[in-house]
Amino acid sequence: MSRAGLVAVALVTSLLTTAPVGPASAAPSAPPASSPSASAATADGFASVDALGQNGTTGGAGGAVVTAATTAQFLDYISRPEPLVVQVSGTITLPTGSSDGMHPVASDKTIVGLGGTARLTGGGLHIGLPASDGVTSPPAGAVHNVIIRNLSFDGATDDLINIQMFSHHIWIDHNDFSDGNDGAVDIKRGSDFVTVSWNRFHNHDKTLLLGHDDDNAAQDRGRLRVTYHHNYFDASDQRNPRVRFAEPVHVYNNYYRDNSYGVVSAMDAGVVLEGNYFHSVNNPARVDFSGGLGRLVARDNVLVECNHPVETRGPVVEPRTYYAYTPHRAAEVPAVVPAGAGVGKI
Predict the structure, then answer these.
(1) Which among 248, 287, 246 has a CA at the least distance from the CA of 265?
(2) Residue 344: which of 113, 38, 73, 180 has the closest Cα?
(3) What is d(CA 13, CA 43) in angstroms, rounded to the nearest whole number?
(4) How far does CA 38 lie from the centroid of its chain?
(5) CA distance between the termini of the chain
(6) Which of 11, 25, 27, 129 has its CA 20 to 30 A from that of 270?
(7) Residue 241 gets which letter from DSSP?
(8) Under DSSP, is residue 273 helix (H, G, I), strand (E, B) or coil?
(9) Which residues touch 23 (CB under 8 Å, ≥6 apart)?
(10) Which of 196, 55, 187, 190 has its CA nearest to residue 127?
């Protein structure tokens, strides 16, 4: 059986053989047949690549399925060391407190919203060890194998999701992101093998940071391999994404509408930009921005009512070196992406 088939079987098996977890007041419940976590969806893009001792991204497959309907339940489940599929029911408010609203997620977790109304508000999720400039290679305890799907995030006092410190094999899929104080999904400090797919970003300024800063080559160069596909950048202003050092970064089949800029490749990063649709975007893609020049290969992108062309500079390592994929034609993106991106659609 293929690895994708084994992942699907493992996830389905975990959902059919759940064991009690935690106190009786927070006992796990079996998901209904229509629950998103009952699907056997498999990560694609860089999150699917076998590397760093991890065979693709399977999240909490093989662990118990639990349902969090309160803040206390949710924070307990996401911090546990064992594999878990954490279903989120309704709205959960994440406190600020001493954490500035950022709450750690442990390895081997699937966090998935039930239906189309599951929401995390007031705070964000932190995937990674505490920041340290002195760590320049992946530590043994790096956070890994996390799936986050079908959730609305809003109102964070910092980032909505922050991924850092060599975290790897992360899949962020079919979520809705808005109104965070800083980044929507920031990926930095040596993190690797991440896919951000089928999300809607709106009412947000600094959307996607990839790479910590211009002085962080020691952690970031040769890592930060990320796939961004089929996301709806719905008037999210900038950093869609803003990239430093990473190569390759694969940005394909995304729909951009009313943004100040789409993609920036800087500090010798390498981006492959293909099959995207830009409508009313001032700068669709740049390699001359701030810091050192980046590199960008562009193909089959559509620009409508944009003020500047796509800037290119190459070469860039091809994503097909790592994984297979079949993109939509760019002309199909305005119909396909808004219809499929966001919550309640898996």
Answers:
(1) 287
(2) 113
(3) 17
(4) 20
(5) 24
(6) 129
(7) S
(8) strand
(9) none
(10) 187
Model pLDDT for residues 328-344, shown as the tens digit of each residue: 999 999 999 999 999 99
* Cβ atoms within 10 Å of 237's Cβ, excluding its own: 17
Six-digit token string for 115: 């239906």
In whole angstroms, give the CA distance from residue 220 to residue 341. Answer: 29
Size of the chain, expressed as the number of residues it contains: 346
DSSP H helices in the chain: 3-16, 71-79, 217-220, 333-340
Answer yes or no: pTM beyond 0.70. yes
pLDDT of residue 100: 85
> If you search the block for the tokens 């991440």, which residue do you land on?
194
pLDDT for 28 equals: 38
Angular region, 320: left φ>0, alpha ψ -120 to 50, beta rest: alpha
Per-residue exposure over 292-302, b if at least 16 CB sit within 10 Å of its own CB, e if not: ebbbbbbeebb
Confidence of residue 21 (pLDDT cuts 50, 70, 90): very low
Chain segment 84-96, per-residue pLDDT in tens: 999 999 999 999 9
195 or 6, which is more confident? 195
- Distance, in Å, from the CA atom of 3 to the CA atom of 324, rounded to the nearest integer, reads 14
Give phi and psi for 50, each to the nearest 5.
-80, 115
Backbone angles phi, psi at 143, to 5 degrees: -70, 140
* Catalytically annotated residues: 239
Q: What are phi and psi of 16, to 5 degrees?
A: -95, -10
Placement of tokens 């980044």 in the chain: 183
Residue whose tokens read 């003020």: 307
Coil/strand/helix, residue 234? strand
The answer to whether 281 and 261 have CB atoms below 8 angstroms apart is: yes
